[in-house]
Amino acid sequence: MTRRTFLQTSLAIGLTCALVPTLSQAQSAPIIIKFSHVAAVDTPKGQGAERFKKLAEERTKGRVRIEVYPNSQLYKDKEELEALQLGSVQMLAPSVSKFGPFGVKEFEVFDLPFVTPDQASYQKAVGGDFGAAMLKKLDVKGVHGLAYWDAGFRVITANKPLRKPEDFKGLKIRINSSKVIDAQMRAVGVMPQTLAFSEVYQALQTGVVDGADVTLSNVYTQKLFEVQKYVTLLHHSHQAYAVVVNRKFWEGLPKDLRETLESAMADASTYANGLTLAEERNAYDKIKAAGKAALVEPTPAEREAIRAVMVQTHKDMEGRLGRDTMQALYKATGFNAGKR
Question: Please, are residues 234 and 303 in contact by the beta-carbon 8 Å criterion?
Answer without folding.
Answer: yes
